[in-house]
Structure formats: structure tokens, C-alpha cells
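Page 42, continued from yesterday. The earlier attempt failed because a stray header line got pasted into the input along with the sequence. Redoing it now with the clean sequence only.
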Amino acid sequence: MAKKLPKVDVVIVGVGWGGGIIASELTKQGLTVVGLERGKERKTEDYFMVHDELRYALRYELMQDLSKETITFRSKMNVRALPMRSYGSFLLGTGLGGSGVHWNGQTFRFLPYDFEIRSKTIERYGAKKIPEGMTIQDWGITYDQLEPYFDKFEKMAGIAGEENPLGGKRSSPYPTPPMRTTPSMKMFADAAKKKNLHPYILPSANLSQAYTNPDGVARAACQYCGFCERFGCEYGAKADPVVTVIPVAKKTGKFEIRTHSHVRRILHTGNKATGVLYTDVTTGEEFEQPADIVVMTSYVFNNTRILLMSKLGKPYDPTTGKGVIGKNYAYQVLRGGAVGFFDDKEFNNYAGAGSLGMCLDDYNGDNFDHSNLKFIHGANISVTQTGFRPIGTNKVPPGTPSWGKDFKAASIKYTNRFISVGAQGASMPFQQHFLDLDPTYKDAFGDPLIRITYDFVDQDRELAAFCADKCAEIVKEMGANEKLEINRKLGPYDITPYQSTHNTGGVIMGASPDNSAVNNYLQMWDAENVFVVGASSFAHNSGYNPTGTMGALSYRAAEGILKYRKSGGGMLV
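This time it went through. C-alpha cells are written below.
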């Protein structure tokens, strides 16, 4: 029998970026908030002088234990899904701060095209441009409506950057100057300009200088140590929830964090939630936490899974296309790119930062004509210097033997003589790509695992090949030798090698309950006091990292929760 606890105004499920932002905004307005985090406590001091590639990058210190909970995967509906037993394609964070602790810090705004993708595609090319089975839809919000929330997130995080010449209009500049320009970044920019393209420095959550944000949180500048992705930042220079929004919420005295608290169900009567049921993983005790408002702010898979287990919202049916919970799962297309090797130049590849780089959007969104192309959308193309660590990085030119004397010689020669130009491609949703509960495999508590059904399609293959050619053109213009490594071919989706942790969809937003789970405040159509915050709300995935857009939507959701509270209930418009 679960122990019933005293009621609070709001309970938050997952204390990462979304949960931290919601907690900060609500507690500043006097609401009492409990944050339930299934992982452990974290603080900056945990990472002092811990540049341990083996422990963090290869043994996944900050990720969840796959022996207790994982996902299952299949490429098609007529194939049995199997559990992901070891980390590969993406990494599932756990603990206070969530994936916001171990991210790189690349903080883009999705393009205006993204938020009205169906309407704008049809307007320019006609309805036949959208292939059969592609389930793109408008998001129920425009870029202009979301712009103030982008601005708020960037000022909170201290994003360093310069204006994207092909991006949406900005109400104010980035709060800190761009990161330093390295030799490889300058070579990329010069080559791009010769081709009449529009390069700009990556927007970065790695601070370019010391900064104090509007909440009074002061942080130090990045030291370019190269230990960002898969690591916590020992300097606090990388914006993460633990050093930005969570301290603000805690300072109010209105925010209680309970770590090691595994939420298993949202409790509800009719179209209203009454609280959540969770288990203390250290003792096995079950608790019921009543609340006026429930906010799901966990990772994409968990948001979808808990709603399905709680029987909230209509589950998606891929055979009919009806239903919404689990719909429009999307990933990212990262295989289109080129690596150039330089016999006459040497670079300091082992220094860097998670978001140190130069990029361009000439082939992203609908910034170029797709009339004669067999895909829509595109990719952000970039050169990044994130810090190549010695165990994980060993590039040699194509044709080099994979072992022996020649391999060793090439490894030593090209250790600091290669540049990779990559494309981060958008992922469009299709009717056959979705999330649901696995009928066979369960977690340590006996609850079903979330199941992914996904594979690359022709849209992805065409996009990857197109972008690989564009990357190769830039690398050649930069002066690389003739032995380029060009990744044009996109085979079946393989969950084994790491690609990105940019999973999206499952609880998507829109203008109607017929085709979406939440409105543009991320309020559930089917449960008015439940808000579902995170990249689970994305109706497709853009050619960018998702965190900046997720952060903006989190600030809008917080505003919606306050409006809902003030009005005494009802659906927000």
C-alpha cells in the first residue's frame, strides 16, 4: 500500500532542463513544487579534476543502468523488438540535471519553417511534395510567437554566439560574444564564403566570458579543455540545470527535490490528474504524491512511457494513423559528411569545447530550392572542435590498413592533420515510426519497457547523400588532399554505433486534439492539469540540436501553468 503524502501545488517528474526551468519559474511566483528525480544528487564539485575519458566517455558514468531499465528496438512492425543491452546510438542520462549535465552545449533555434512545415511546404511546392506516409504537421505555434522564450532561455544560459544570417529574426543579440575562432573554423568560413555561403559561429552554452544572468547566477568562462560531451563541467562554464535554474528554485524555499524517486504512474480521475505514484529505489517503498498540477519533464521515452502506462491520452495506432501518444517519433540523420586530411597543416584537435565551431544553414530547412530534390528540409553543416580525446579518436585516410606498421604510421601522422565537416540532418516523421509499450520485456519493477519502431527511409538517404556532397565541396575548398572520406551512403538504421541523443516526438504538440497530444503551452488535451515538457513535443526533428527549442518551449509551458493556476483551470488558448 503506497503511503500518501501531503498535497503540493505542483509535482515535476524529472529534474533536468525542463524540470529545472519549470521549478524556477513557478517557485519564483510562490508555488510549492516537488521535483521527483530517479537518479542521484549532482553538483559541480563532483567533476573537479575528473578528466577521465574511460570512466565517463566509454563506461557511461552519467547514464542510466541498462540492466534495470532500457528500451527495445525494431526496424519494422513485423520484426520482434529486442532490448538495447549496451550503449550505442544514443545515451540516456540519469541523475539531477539529466542530459543537461553531459550535453555539448550547442544551442540553436529551430527555423521559422520548422513550426509551420506542412503549410509552408505545400505553399511552395504543392501537396504532392509530401510523400505518402510522411506525417509532418504544423506545431500550433509560430517562430515569432516562440521568439521571446528563445530569448529568455538564451539569457538565462548565457549563450555565446553571433546572429545566424539565414535564421529567424531576433529581438536582441546573444548575451555573450561568440567563442574563439580556431584555424580550422577560419578555413571553413573562408571556404564557405568563396562558395557564396553564409557561415557563422556556433551558438554555445559554453560561456565565452564570465557572465551573470538575469537571476543573478554568476558563472566562469570556458577553459577549452575539451571535456564537455558525456562529462560534467568542473568550471560551471557549460550551462546546465544544476548551475543555472535549479539553484534559483531552491533559493526560494519552495522547491523540494527528491532523488532516487522512480515515478511509475500519473494518478487521475476523469480528465484531471490527482498526483503521481513513485517508488523510492533505495528502500523499495511506494509513495503517492498528490498535486494540483502534474508536469512531466523527463526524457522523450519516459514521458511517452508513463502516459501510456497511466492510460492518459489515446495511444497511437500505426495501422490507422489514429491516436496521439507515441506518434511521430523522429531521430536525426547524421551520416552525411566528409573528412579531409592535410599533409601540410597541423591542428590542435585535442583542445576545444562542446560547442566550438563554425556552421552554415544554406542547406537547412527550406533555405534552398527543393523542387528537383527527392527530400524536404535539410541540415546544418559545420566544422566543430569539441576536443578529440585519445581513446575515442583515431582518423586515418581511406585505404589505410586497419592494423600493422602502415596503420601506426598513418595514425601518428594524421592525429592532428584532419578536419571533419559534418551535416546534422532533419528527421521527418512517418506513419510507421512510433513508440509504444513492449509486450514482452519489462523493467526492474515489472513495468513494460518503451519500444521504438524506426528505420531510415528514402527521404533520409537522399538528404544524407546531398549533404555529404556539399560537405565534400567545402572540405576540398579548404585544401584537403585528394583522399577524402565521404559518407554518402545511409544504410538501415543501426542502433549499435553512437549517432546522437536527439530523440524527439511521442507526445507532440499541435492546434487540435485530433493530431496532437498537447497544445502550444504543452498542456494535455485529455488532462487539463497535466503538462508534458520536453523534446517529446516536437512534431518532427530539425537539422539542429534540440535543446534551445526545448528550453524555449519549457519557458512557455511555465507561463501556461501560471495562467492555468491563476484562471482556476480550463484549457489555455
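Notes: The domain at 3-567 is CATH 3.50.50.60 (FAD/NAD(P)-binding domain).
Reminder to self: strip header lines before submitting.
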